[in-house]
Specification:
The relative contact order is 0.16. By secondary structure, the protein is an alpha+beta fold. The protein has 4 helices and 9 strands. The mean pLDDT is about 95. Helix content is about 25%, strand content about 30%. The radius of gyration is 16 Å and the shape is globular. Bound molecules: coenzyme A. The site of coenzyme A (COA) has 20 residues, from strand 4, helix 3 and helix 4.
């Protein structure tokens, strides 16, 4: 697996990083489906994520206090080398400016500080932007006997809910 040098944390201009609080929940859940281009994603983020995973997650805000992005993740209790990113998204009006990269950098920095060595995420293989973004972030797509080529990338069939396809993304920290 590729070993990546530890980078400086980037700071895109005009936005601020902080840990989420539970009061961020309504603002986040209100934009999720829109930020995923109309896919129904809300169900993947019940309130518990803003209660129990704040210390390993991040939000970004504009200077005016508007939500610019979020990363909800955790350090796996059962895979002690692994930091798992459950959801990451940025405001569609602020894409392509390094906000997503800066969120992942902070998540990776937290993981390294906790002694973890692996970042993991999953995505729908037809989400080409997500696949390209994760590749740009140094993730590799898991490939093996259980994967087949779906939408041009190795992915697992019937991975979630016994019906939905997922590509598994792994990055050495
Ligand atoms: C995926 C997403 C988080 C990227 O956020 P972003 O703020 O635009 O990303 P950045 O500007 O930090 O880009 C980081 C890298 O990803 C690449 N990237 C981002 N968007 C891309 C796109 N549409 N096509 C190809 N590459 C892309 C960039 O080239 C960049 O690489 P570089 O730093 O080497 O130049 C954002 O598009 C999004 O919220 N999408 C909807 C939610 C989603 O699908 N989340 C991922 C699945 S959980």
């Amino acid at each position: 697996m590729t070993v990546h040098p530890i980078p400086e944390l980037s700071n895109p201009p005009g936005i601020e990083f902080r840990r989420p609080v539970e009061d961020d929940y309504p603002a986040i859940v209100a934009v999720i489906d829109d930020w995923w281009g109309g896919r129904r994603m809300q169900g993947l983020l019940p309130r518990l994520w803003l209660q129990h995973f704040r210390g390993t997650s991040w939000v970004v805000e504009t200077e005016a206090g508007h939500l610019a992005g979020f990363l909800i993740g955790f350090h796996s209790p059962d895979q002690p080398d692994t930091a798992y990113c459950h959801m990451i998204a940025t405001n569609p009006n602020l894409r392509g400016r390094g906000v997503g990269r800066a969120l992942y950098e902070r998540f990776f920095a937290d993981a390294r500080a906790a002694g973890l060595s692996r970042g993991v995420a999953i995505t729908w293989p037809g989400n080409r932007v997500s696949v390209a973004f994760h590749r740009a972030m140094g993730f590799e797509l898991e490939e093996g006997p259980d994967t087949r080529n779906l939408y041009g990338v190795p992915a697992h069939e019937r991975y979630d809910f016994d019906r939905e396809e997922r590509a598994v993304l792994v990055r050495h920290l």
